[in-house]
Write a structure and sequence with these properties.
This protein is an alpha+beta fold. The chain is built from 6 helices and 7 strands. The longest helix has 81 residues. It is elongated, with a radius of gyration of 28 Å.
């Protein structure tokens, strides 16, 4: 190349070839990114459908068990009423109170399992909290998410599923009696705060964005999906590992959705 950028037909041909090659490279790269986004979206959709099917199956089993409990309660109701009437007439109020408490407990046990009013997010919570309990992991939750929220319920459900899946895997590595997961959410003024923390005594590696990373080839996809969801809604995420507790916190606001000046991660 020299000062005479196009001086001969060979130079013209080479310049055109370079231009075509660069355009083709850009097009292929762009298509690869789009294909990657489609694949990730498809994986998230499939995962959510699997979660919902598992939740429906679990709820169906729960309804079947509740129907059996209600049938037994209905069958024993006349006997319990007669027994209560006899105890009250004889002044045995403590015994009558004990029977009423037992009946109340039996009725409470037939209530459907609901963690929040949003059915899609509730499905995700139901599946993973049930898995945690099967692994003898103590769950302490305070969840408040309404039925209608400004963000895609499916995205928030996938976020919960990835975070809780990691929390369960980490908790399974802890000693017996030291397996604990805390889930706390707050929803007010179209702002959603989520905090999930679990015990973990091992080492946690963080990337430049302060997100946990894994050296295993099959891990880390979940956190990538979480980062994508946070960026999509211009949300906030922060992670920490202190005194044997790993904590991940999120903040979503309807105001952030259209605010392109807001940084997607870590403020």
């Amino acid at each position: 190349m020299d000062e005479n950028w196009i001086n001969t037909w060979r130079q013209l041909l080479s310049r055109l070839s370079i231009g075509v090659a660069l355009f083709a490279l850009w097009k292929c790269t762009n298509l690869d990114f789009k294909e990657l986004e489609k694949m990730q979206s498809l994986k998230s959709t499939n995962k959510l459908l699997h979660i919902q099917l598992e939740a429906i199956r679990h709820q169906a089993e729960n309804i079947s068990e509740n129907d059996e409990k209600i049938r037994i309660l209905r069958h024993d109701m006349r006997h319990n009423v007669q027994m209560l009437s006899s105890l009250i007439q004889n002044g045995e109020l403590d015994s009558a109170s004990h029977i009423l408490e037992q009946l109340n407990d039996d009725l409470e046990s037939t209530k459907p399992i609901v963690f929040c009013k949003n059915p899609v997010i509730n499905s995700s919570l139901l599946v993973y909290i049930n898995r945690a309990q099967k692994e003898n992991i103590e769950i302490i939750s305070e969840i408040d998410i309404p039925q209608n929220i400004p963000w895609s319920s499916s995205d928030i459900a996938i976020l919960f599923s990835n975070v809780l899946e990691n929390a369960i895997n980490a908790s399974c590595q802890q000693q017996k009696g030291n397996k604990e997961i805390h889930i706390t959410t707050r929803y007010t003024d179209k702002k959603l705060a989520i905090v999930v923390k679990n015990r973990f005594d091992g080492e946690v590696l963080f990337n430049n964005a302060s997100m946990p990373i894994s050296m295993d080839a099959d891990h880390g996809i979940g956190m990538s999906s979480v980062s994508t969801i946070v960026s999509k809604y211009h949300g906030y995420v922060a992670c920490s590992h202190e005194k044997g507790w790993f904590t991940i916190s999120f903040m979503f606001s309807e105001h952030f959705i259209n605010d392109t000046t807001f940084s997607g991660q870590n403020g």
